[in-house]
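Box 3.1 — From sequence to structure: Glutamyl-tRNA reductase
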Amino acid sequence: MNLLSVGASYRTADVSTLERLTIAEADVPRVLQKLVGQPYVGEAVLLSTCNRVEIYAAVSGFHGGLGDVCNVLAEASGIPATELAGHLYVHYDEAAVLHSFRVSAGLDSMVVGEAQILGQLRDAYHSATESDTAGRLLHELMQQALRVGKRAHAETGIDKAGQSVVTAALEVASSYLGDLDGKSALVIGAGAMGALTVATLTRAGIGPVRITNRSGARADRLAEAYGAVAVPFADLDLALREADLVISATASTEPVLTRDRLASAGPLVVLDLAVPRDVAPDVTGLDGITIIDIDSLATSRRALPAAADTAAVEQIVTAEVDHFLGWLRGTEIAPTVAALRTRAEDIVSAELRKLWSRKPEFTEEQRGEVSRTLHRVVQQLLHSPTVRVRRLAAEPGGDQYAAMLRELFDLDVPQYATQADAVPEIGGKS
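Predicted structure (token representation):
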């Protein structure tokens, strides 16, 4: 099996395309099962956030695996495959490992160094585990990716500014509202993004803060945790009229903030952090209403981490990629070593059968002693070379040792029968 990463993000697609690609949380298990039901896909993890949708897969061939993943994405999004192709990035094997570790470390985020992606990746891995679509390869990849993200935040200052999509959005909002101190804020949605928003507003001293959510109980709990005020969803129109700043981050598949609703709200800055968007498309241009969405954030100027911190994270990522590839090469030689040992055992067994046919006078005890002796000799002869080749295989270029063993001993290792399809140009636009 080989690693394949296919996705679209704010770098390659506008928010309208990401809206169509977004997989609702309730649909993730179904899409994961659809993926592993494809001919070339053996394992799958699906990461769907406000600014990226990507699939990590273990595939038996590059072209077949890519076709399978793209077909599932096209079916799930309703975007024709030919149109979808222009928005996708593709990474294979080493490039897929590198990409996943850069994502977990926040290097590929809209706000470089933000820590939220780590939790989102953990949730994606958990969903795949619950759906039984992550096997040995993706279990190892995801676990190491999470370790990389933790190292990046623990060992460098890449997140010292506490940046997130929310803080970036507030920076843009301040260019319209000025100093946000004392501004009244309304948060719509009490999920993960809503909770991050309330926490960020509270730390920044912005308030008063009101929270509304279709599930009143969740809004109540979030408000109590941060000293905010929960507002019944039925009173949303009134809450909008009392706010200077609105941050909307629901999981609704339909717009929550319609033109009619916002037309009576008065002057207002709305941060739409939801994908699909919470603000209806026809709100654009409405007098007194300023909309800041994911597209706006992607093109805005934001504070970046210090170059030294970014470089330090890149070094961590590079070292961890090498470590993972060493593990991967070590696991890839295991079937070859097993095939060599099986070949040796088969030869010993065949020779013993010939010996017993020529020497029928041997007792069972004598046969057992001869058999054990021959097997011990073979095991001792193979021990040092196989230990050595496992060590060498874990080093860069180590795949050549497995290939040499297969060639020298004419070993039939089934996993290598499909690899003729697996020689793409590694990596794509990202």
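Summary of the box: The longest strand covers residues 2-9.
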